[in-house]
Design brief:
This protein has eleven helices and eight strands. The chain is an alpha/beta fold and 304 residues long. It has two domains: 192 residues, Spore Coat Polysaccharide Biosynthesis Protein SpsA, Chain A (Alpha-Beta Complex), CATH 3.90.550.10; 95 residues, no CATH class. The chain is globular. 42% of the residues are buried.
């Protein structure tokens, strides 16, 4: 690409792999924003479909890595180190910005004095399962603060590069790099703002295999983030509580098939989290720095 006429104020980092079904919508929404002063940096981990063909329709820089080299924390650290701006924005390849001012609102928030990072509101896709819609409604409220268990969420987020230079993303576990960063930043007294006006569409209807894989890496990460011991009893309680709350949403909607399948999904999710938590705790005790097990579990099940 020829050099830009002027330096951009923001770098937007998008990670892709076989994203042809969503990347066009995501980049179209990005380039439809009122805020246009950004440099697009795409990190692709071995796409074999039309992803890169679609990406190249837009002005961007592309960094290509091998699929086996994709570890979220280190990849993000590499991408941010390539950024030439004081603010970096993260947008998942399946995230669609829902208003033309979403990026502007996010950048305004993190550009303010004393603010280290910010993240936007995620709304479910139209085809989202009832349980997914409930999860989103709780995690990403229409107004007010996000719940304490969502300290930071990367599908649509921003941070000052100076904050990253002081506190990079961790590499101890394969997933939950945004949660770990948010927890540590909060412990340090840093300011992370939730911006409901920066609304995007993002959700997944995971299969049971995908639920297990995603939950496994979250459980492994929780061992490193919180240092608590795994508990099968606690996991069972969480599955039951979540299934009951799901049912409260599904009955008014007459989503009977979802109501029948919901407890199974929650049980599989909590079992995956428990197994991942066990694995993470074992790694901590033995000072095992091998993160490849979590990578294998999630990639085999989720095609990430």
């Amino acid at each position: 690409m020829p050099p830009r006429e002027k330096d951009s104020a923001v770098t937007v980092i998008v990670r892709t792999k076989n994203s042809e079904d969503t990347i066009g919508q995501a980049l179209h929404s990005l380039h439809s924003q009122t805020y246009r002063d950004f440099d697009l940096l795409v990190v692709d981990s071995g796409s074999r479909d039309a992803t890169l063909e679609i990406v190249r329709r837009y002005p961007c820089r592309i960094v290509e890595i091998r699929p086996e080299d994709y570890y979220p924390g280190p990849v993000l650290n590499m991408a941010i180190s390539e950024a030439r701006t004081g603010i970096v924005v993260f947008q998942n390849s399946d995230v669609v910005l829902l208003t033309r001012t979403a990026l502007e609102r996010l950048v305004e928030a993190v550009a303010g004095p004393g603010v280290h990072a910010a993240f936007g509101r995620q709304l479910p896709r139209p085809e989202a399962l009832s349980m997914v819609r409930r999860d989103h409604a709780v995690a990403f409220p229409e107004d007010g603060p996000a719940p304490p268990w969502i300290p930071y969420s990367l599908p649509f987020a921003a941070m000052k590069k100076s904050a990253w230079l002081e506190r990079a993303f961790y590499s101890s576990a394969w997933g939950s790099e945004d949660t770990e960063w948010g927890v540590r930043a909060r412990e340090a007294g840093w300011s992370i703002r939730y911006i409901p006006e920066a609304a995007v569409m993002h959700s997944h209807n995971y299969t049971l295999r995908e639920w297990y894989g995603r939950s496994f890496i979250e459980g492994e990460a929780d061992a490193f983030i919180y240092g608590d011991a795994p508990s099968l009893r606690r996991s069972f309680g969480r599955a039951v509580s979540a299934a009951i709350r799901d049912l409260a949403w599904q009955i008014p909607e007459r989503a009977w098939s979802e109501a029948a399948a919901g407890p199974v999904r929650r049980a599989v999710s909590q079992w995956g989290h428990y197994r991942g938590h066990l694995h993470g705790t074992s790694r901590l005790k033995s000072a095992d720095d091998d993160v490849s097990v979590g990578q294998k579990v999630v990639l085999e099940r989720c095609h990430a």
